[in-house]
């Protein structure tokens, strides 16, 4: 399928403009050049950094990009030189479990570094104490040791310009603020002396099953970030569907964890509308981050896609929704055409005559792309690229096109999404059909494709209303008549099945207190495998407060096994199981040894709960797979953040154009999984890591631009084949909860099962 240029323009013209166009800010041009599409499409593997003995779970640059810090399952911190591409220091931290996060402390000449790990500890190290030591620096006494968390520390955050404070997010449901000026140690959690008053956010009653549900479960935090442009803004994400934005200036004073508190009010919730009412215990965030300019946030979901949201929004705007809006979107009601969309003159003409020649070229481009997409829909070929062509028209040139083209593009994209049937495509098609109906309330295609989308989701009653409306709009159309008949058959079948169940008698459920779960029950309990089942009725278990959360770790000790005769293909090691029963959370022992109790406001029933308004998605990025690990990142690339990148469970990492969601690059970066993707602060240079014990460095050194580039893991398959395989992984039952991290190469092997 024919390609079209990216939105950052011709790189040669951009370079020349730095010297010839005095109206341009040279720094802005330099920022645009850092991750220009012509460079991104030439990214290839430059080298691998060797120095860890386990999975590399964290990589972070210092502020000027001269140093890279990494943390690993081997409980070591490594410091690397950017210019020399070599290991400078390897520090034995003393952590007793995997390191998940590392940071340079700002304004300390890169002498202070901090780490957080699975042993629930945060450790601070002073690199000036390493002067004169060799490459393998061995153990070093931490300058500060914080042991107040009770579960794994998954993410650290620092504030630009602040050398005194680090924030830690833990799966115990708290975000803590550690001030080096107030103390350099604290007693272990659970000790009688544990009185640390450093809890900034207590979210042990903060998790929500859905938008309608009050927060009443522990929000096991997976990620946090502090805005670089407005450092009072704090973003957190955990084991539910909602990212939360807080203003630190509006939070209550720091507290201890002696008493569980109701969660503080946040500035904004962020969640795609179609995920807000799922009620699935498995849906959770693995990474949240601010854009470089602080105006957007990026969310990465386990078992889901990557989503972009706006921070600043007008109250009541289309980007904000509240309880009931999702169901309204799927309910047939008469729609009044948007008057502001009925003008036949592009809004771009209002800015002056000098834009008319450019706008004419862009409109011609949009017409060409729309015709390409319609041809692909008719032939049933190149569906993925046809959807990207529609994205280019709607998201790339939305202000240039008139209502007729916009309507046609919405309908065409909806039809393409329904034909592709990737995860949540039906939900995005519903949005498109709704938008098309607001432009033309008598649109046959908008009503027909809305009926088909609802039918795919198993919402047959709602689908029938739209199908009947489509038939009324075009009585002679045989497709509409067939659609009505098919939906009526589905409704009849559902009614018959319901009657059979009621006549047979519902099976009695087992008493919870008398049921013992076997390991097989836990590991192979599966979820629904389609959007239809996800949107259906919740099981008794999912409505319950008694959700077990399982942490399963299987570790092999390689060091003493080399000389032994061991049975091939068998993993030897220790198995550790830890259960957390949510219904018993009110009786959990606090860090000080006392039992916490919820405030009275938490005991109100759902009927009294007033749900919050939520910010909806602006863009979706698809193609990767995020199921196996809960530290998978999604990152902005470059100082302007014009591209979005994410690791994937298939050993690849993906790069999309932020503005349109168009896939620009797919690279093979690991034998198993890529978790971390970190762009250099100023250069076109990316560091990635994952299950392998090495860090991969990527530079634009390929001779020709392309969408695909191989790596250390061998030859590459086609782009579409790789993405379709990933979609199958996202949609299949979660039977493969045991995720095999690593292969027999002398590294740790972990089997992780989360949120059964």
Spell out the key features of this protein.
756 residues, alpha+beta, 6-stranded mixed beta sheet, 5-stranded mixed beta sheet
Quickly give the structural class. Answer: alpha+beta
Strand content: 15-25%
Described by strand count, sense and barrel closure, the largest sheet is:
6 strands, mixed
Share in helix: 10-25%
Ends apart, CA distance between termini: 42 Å
**Any low-confidence stretches, pLDDT <50, length ≥5?**
339-354, 512-603, 710-715, 737-756
Radius of gyration: 27 Å
Widest sheet: strand ordering: 15-16-17-18-25-22
Quaternary: single chain
Query: What's the mean pLDDT score?
Result: 81
Outline type: globular
| Strands, count | 36
Number of helices: 14
Describe the overall structure:
With 756 residues, the protein is α+β, with helices and mostly antiparallel strands. Helix content is 23%, strand content 24%. It contains 14 helices and 36 strands. Strands 15-16-17-18-25-22 form a six-stranded mixed β-sheet, with no helix packed on it. Strands 2-3-4-5-9 form a five-stranded mixed β-sheet, with no helix packed on it. A hairpin with a 5-residue loop joins strand 2 and strand 3 (67-72). Helix 1 runs antiparallel to helix 2 and helix 7 (403-420) runs parallel beside helix 9 (444-456). The longest helix has 27 residues, at 478-504. The two termini are 42 Å apart.
């Amino acid at each position: 399928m024919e390609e079209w240029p990216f939105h950052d323009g011709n790189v040669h013209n951009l370079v020349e403009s730095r010297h010839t166009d005095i109206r341009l800010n040279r720094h802005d041009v330099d920022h645009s050049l850092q991750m220009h599409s012509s460079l991104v499409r030439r990214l290839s593997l430059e080298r691998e950094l060797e120095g860890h003995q386990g999975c590399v779970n964290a990589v972070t640059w210092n502020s000027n990009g001269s140093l890279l810090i990494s943390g690993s399952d081997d409980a070591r911190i490594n410091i690397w030189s950017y210019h020399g591409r070599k290991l400078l220091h390897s520090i034995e931290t003393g952590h007793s479990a995997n390191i998940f996060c590392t940071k340079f402390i700002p304004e300390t000449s890169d002498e202070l570094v901090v780490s957080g790990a699975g042993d629930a500890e945060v450790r601070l190290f002073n690199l000036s104490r390493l002067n004169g030591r060799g490459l393998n620096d061995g153990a070093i006494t931490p300058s500060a040791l914080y042991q107040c968390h009770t579960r794994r520390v998954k993410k650290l955050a620092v504030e630009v310009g602040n050398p005194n404070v680090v924030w830690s997010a833990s799966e115990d449901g708290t975000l803590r603020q550690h001030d080096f000026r107030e103390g350099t140690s604290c007693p272990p959690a659970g000790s009688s002396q544990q009185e640390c008053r450093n809890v900034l956010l207590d979210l042990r009653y903060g998790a929500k099953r859905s938008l309608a549900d009050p927060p009443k479960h522990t929000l096991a935090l997976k990620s946090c970030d502090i805005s670089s442009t407005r450092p009072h803004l704090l973003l957190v994400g955990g084991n539910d569907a909602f990212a939360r934005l807080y203003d630190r200036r509006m939070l209550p004073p720091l507290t201890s964890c002696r008493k569980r508190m109701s969660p503080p009010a946040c500035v904004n919730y962020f969640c795609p509308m179609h995920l807000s009412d799922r009620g699935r215990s498995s849906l959770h965030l693995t990474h949240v981050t601010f854009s470089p300019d602080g105006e957007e946030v990026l969310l990465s979901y386990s078992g889901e896609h990557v989503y972009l949201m706006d921070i600043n929004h007008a109250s009541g705007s289309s980007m904000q929704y509240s309880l009931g809006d999702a169901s309204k979107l799927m309910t047939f009601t008469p729609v009044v055409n948007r008057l502001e969309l009925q003008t036949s003159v592009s809004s771009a003409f209002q800015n002056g005559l000098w834009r008319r020649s450019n706008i004419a070229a862009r409109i011609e481009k949009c017409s060409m792309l729309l015709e390409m997409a319609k041809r692909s829909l008719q032939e049933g070929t190149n569906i993925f690229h046809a959807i990207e062509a529609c994205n280019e028209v709607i998201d790339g040139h939305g202000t240039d096109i008139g209502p007729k083209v916009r309507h046609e593009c919405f309908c065409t994209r909806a039809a393409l999404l329904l034909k592709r049937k990737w995860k949540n495509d039906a939900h995005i098609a519903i949005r498109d059909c709704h938008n098309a109906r607001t432009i033309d309330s008598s649109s046959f295609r908008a009503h027909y494709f809305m009926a088909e989308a609802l039918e795919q989701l198993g919402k047959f009653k709602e689908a029938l209303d739209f199908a009947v409306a489509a038939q009324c709009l075009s009585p002679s159309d045989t497709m509409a008549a067939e659609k009505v008949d098919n939906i009526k058959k589905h409704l009849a079948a559902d009614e018959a099945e319901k009657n059979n169940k009621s006549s047979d008698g519902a099976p009695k459920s087992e008493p919870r207190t008398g049921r013992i779960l076997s390991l097989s029950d836990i590991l192979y309990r599966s979820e629904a495998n389609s959007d239809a089942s996800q949107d259906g009725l919740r099981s008794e278990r999912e409505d319950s407060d008694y959700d077990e959360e399982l942490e399963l770790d299987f570790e092999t000790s390689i060091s003493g096994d080399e000389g032994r005769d061991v049975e091939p293909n068998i993993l030897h090691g220790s198995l550790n199981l830890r259960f957390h029963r949510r219904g018993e959370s009110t009786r959990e022992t606090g860090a000080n040894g006392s039992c916490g109790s919820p405030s009275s406001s938490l005991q109100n029933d759902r009927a009294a709960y007033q749900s919050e308004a939520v910010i909806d998605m602006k863009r979706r990025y698809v193609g990767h797979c995020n199921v196996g690990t809960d530290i998978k990142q999604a990152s902005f690339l470059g100082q302007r953040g014009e591209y979005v990148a994410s690791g994937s469970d298939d050993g690849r990492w993906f790069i999309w154009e932020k503005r349109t969601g168009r896939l620009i690059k797919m690279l093979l970066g690991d034998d198993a999984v890529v978790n971390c993707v970190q762009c250099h602060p100023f250069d076109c240079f990316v560091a990635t890591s994952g299950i392998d014990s090495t860090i991969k460095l990527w530079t634009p050194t390929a001779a020709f631009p392309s969408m695909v580039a191989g790596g250390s893991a061998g030859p590459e398959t086609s782009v579409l084949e790789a993405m379709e395989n990933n979609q199958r992984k996202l949609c299949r039952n979660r039977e493969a909860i045991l995720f095999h991290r690593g292969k027999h190469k002398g590294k740790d092997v972990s089997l992780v099962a989360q949120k059964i």
